[in-house]
Each structure stands twice: as C-alpha cells, then as structure tokens.
Task: inverse folding
C-alpha cells in the first residue's frame, strides 16, 4: 500500500519535491467501515489553495499528512450493512491505494448507468459546479451571449453545453488550437478563442460577441477576465467560479480597473462554491445524467495512468495538459 503526503507548503508553482510517496500497511476495516481500493482519483485546481496555510472555504491540507480529494474506488472488504465487496463507491478520500472509511463517508454508484469515472467529472463535482453556477447565478436566457474562460476544462465544457441547451450564443476561451477546434466542431460552440495566441484578445472577443456579453462564467481570472469585462452588457451576470491564473502567484497583480464598468452596467458578479448547493445535488446529478444519456451533454476525460504520476497530472492542470476532466487511474477494478 502507498500514500502521498504533502511535505512542504509550495511557494508559487508546486514541484514533486513538495510531496512524498510512503509505503504503509493495508488497514483492516472495523465495524461500520469498508476497505476501499482506489481505482481513479481526481486532481483539481482548488487543491492548490489547500496546499497553502491560509484560511479559505476548506481547511488547508496538513503537512506530513495525505492529500485528499475525490476518489472512485472498489469495496474489497465490508463490515458495514448496505455495502459489499465489489461495490463501486465515490467519496472524498485520501490519496492512498487502499484505505478504510466509514460507510457513511462514501456513496455507492451504479456502474451500469454511466462509466464510473463520470462520478468525478460530468455528473460529479465539476458538472454540478457548471450546472448551479450557470443556471442559478448566470440565469441564461435564449439569445443571450455567454462567454466562458477555461472553456475546454471539466467545468467549462459543461457550462458551454448547458448554455447551448438553453439557447444561448456560446463563446469559449481556451489555451490551444486543438481545444478551440474541439469546442467548435465537437461541442457546437459558436466561437472559441485561443488566449495564448490571440494578439488582441479584446478585439477577438468583440468580433465573437457582436452583441456584447450577457453572462461571463469565469474560471480563470487575470488578464483573460480583464478583457472580457470590458465587453459586458447592462445587467450582465458573472458567476465567479475559479481564478486558476492566480493560484500560483505569490503576489496577485491588480488588473485594469474594471469596477466602473460593473457599476454603470449594473452587473452582478457573484462568487460561489459548489457545496453551497449541497441540498440540490440530487436534482443536479439527475439532470446532468439525463442530458448525458440523451446525447445532449458530451464529456471528455484525460486519464493519466499510475499513482506515481499523480503530481504530474495535478501540475498539468496549470499548463493546460487536460481536455475535459483530469483523472489518475490507480488500479483496475
Ligand atoms: P480544468 O479542467 O478547467 O483545468 C484547468 C484548466 O485551466 C487547464 O486545462 C488550463 O486550460 C486552464 N488554465 C491553467 N492555467 C491558466 C491560466 N494561467 N490562465 C488561463 N487558463 C489557465 O479545471 P476545473 O474544470 O476542475 O476547474 C476550473 C475552474 O473552476 C478552476 O479555477 C477551479 O478552481 C474552479 N472550480 C470552482 C469550483 C467552485 O465550487 N467554485 C468547483 C470546481 C472548480 P487552457 O489550456 O485553456 O489554459
């Protein structure tokens, strides 16, 4: 058995030296617990924030303790009613190959409904983030223009497709030509822009959004957002989902002063955390799964093989290695 510990609080971009792989025994489940074998684990941008020793909506990871996050695993031994060996479960678990957990800490998933990896992506936390952020804060109306940054990632890809379902003009911003092509050709986005190669991002956006921007779903922050904000329409809504461009900055630069534009356009900018919607997760999961089944919601997963490559997969989020949800495959069921 193995686990991955955080051993340093990274400054700027983390490196593999901030983590340690440790050999540990396979534990025995007690009454009410199950022994879970990790099959897939999720690496997520928000984990970078938990590596800092600063107050946020989730507590920091503790030094010399295992990282934890979304995991899909197989029950190999059960001492809990309702779960038996062979069941597939999802939960917030440690980065360990094997671990015991209270049966209340995991949720059983039905592998016949959708591939088990989707519990960490399109019908899991990222899908729910897209669903509630766009529908509850963005409130898209047919014919409106929706711009999404981080558009080819786990959350962004779902946002754009839901906005299409709602009858909007959808414009994505992402960091490679392959991603741009995927968004337009495979997902039916109306336009997409490569922010890394655009010589004038604002001009490219203006061309893609002839009627301005009614909703800006922000996954990245920084200069990309500064450019979008200059094009917002009166009564624009801005679900503030993520700020990945800033997560590794030791000092956050202040961009152009956009506040007067927010003011005169009476725009709404609202930060949110997906767990705010915990009471509605069942509704969201059901709707996302239905759209997937109906073929209205496509998904993409980038899967790195091997527990030893977990940190590399995590760091890849910051250089845009992933199309759709980034996962690590740890073991075969
Ligand atoms: P993604 O799958 O979108 O992966 C991250 C992507 O961000 C990369 O693929 C990369 O794509 C892009 N990126 C990385 N660095 C930069 C940069 N400097 N500038 C612009 N783009 C960059 O991750 P998720 O879908 O899981 O998360 C997306 C965002 O949503 C994150 O900011 C995350 O923190 C946030 N989030 C918020 C939640 C909430 O509850 N509020 C819940 C879940 C996620 P590219 O090639 O396009 O650069």
Result:
């Amino acid at each position: 058995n193995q686990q991955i510990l955080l051993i340093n609080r990274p400054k700027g971009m983390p490196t593999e030296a901030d983590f340690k792989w440790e050999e540990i025994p396979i534990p025995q489940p007690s009454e009410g617990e199950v022994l879970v074998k990790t099959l897939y684990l999720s690496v997520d941008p928000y984990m970078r924030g938990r590596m800092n020793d600063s107050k946020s909506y989730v507590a920091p990871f503790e030094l010399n303790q295992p990282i934890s996050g979304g995991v899909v695993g197989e029950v190999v031994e059960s001492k809990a009613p309702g779960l038996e060996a062979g069941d597939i479960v999802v939960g917030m678990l440690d980065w360990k190959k094997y671990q015991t957990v209270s049966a209340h800490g995991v949720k059983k998933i039905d592998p016949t409904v959708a591939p088990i990896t989707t519990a960490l992506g399109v019908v899991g936390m990222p899908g729910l983030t897209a669903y509630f952020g766009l529908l509850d804060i963005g409130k898209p109306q047919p014919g409106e223009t929706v711009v999404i940054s981080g558009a080819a990632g786990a959350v962004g890809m779902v946002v754009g497709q839901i906005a299409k379902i709602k009858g909007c003009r959808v414009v994505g911003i992402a960091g490679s030509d392959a991603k741009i092509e995927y968004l337009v050709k495979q997902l039916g986005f109306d336009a997409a822009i490569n922010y890394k190669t655009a010589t004038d991002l604002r001009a490219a956006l203006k061309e893609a959004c002839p009627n301005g921007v009614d909703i800006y779903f922000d996954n990245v922050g920084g200069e990309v957002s500064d450019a979008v904000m200059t094009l917002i329409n009166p009564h624009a809504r801005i679900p503030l989902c993520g700020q990945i461009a800033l997560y590794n900055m030791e000092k956050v630069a202040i961009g152009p002063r956009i506040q007067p534009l927010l003011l005169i356009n009476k725009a709404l900018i609202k930060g949110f955390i997906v767990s705010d919607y915990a009471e509605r997760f069942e509704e969201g999961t059901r709707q996302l799964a239905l759209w997937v089944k109906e073929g209205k919601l496509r998904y993409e997963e980038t899967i790195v093989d091997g527990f030893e490559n977990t940190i590399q997969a995590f760091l890849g989020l910051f250089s845009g290695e992933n199309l759709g949800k980034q996962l690590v495959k740890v073991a075969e069921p």
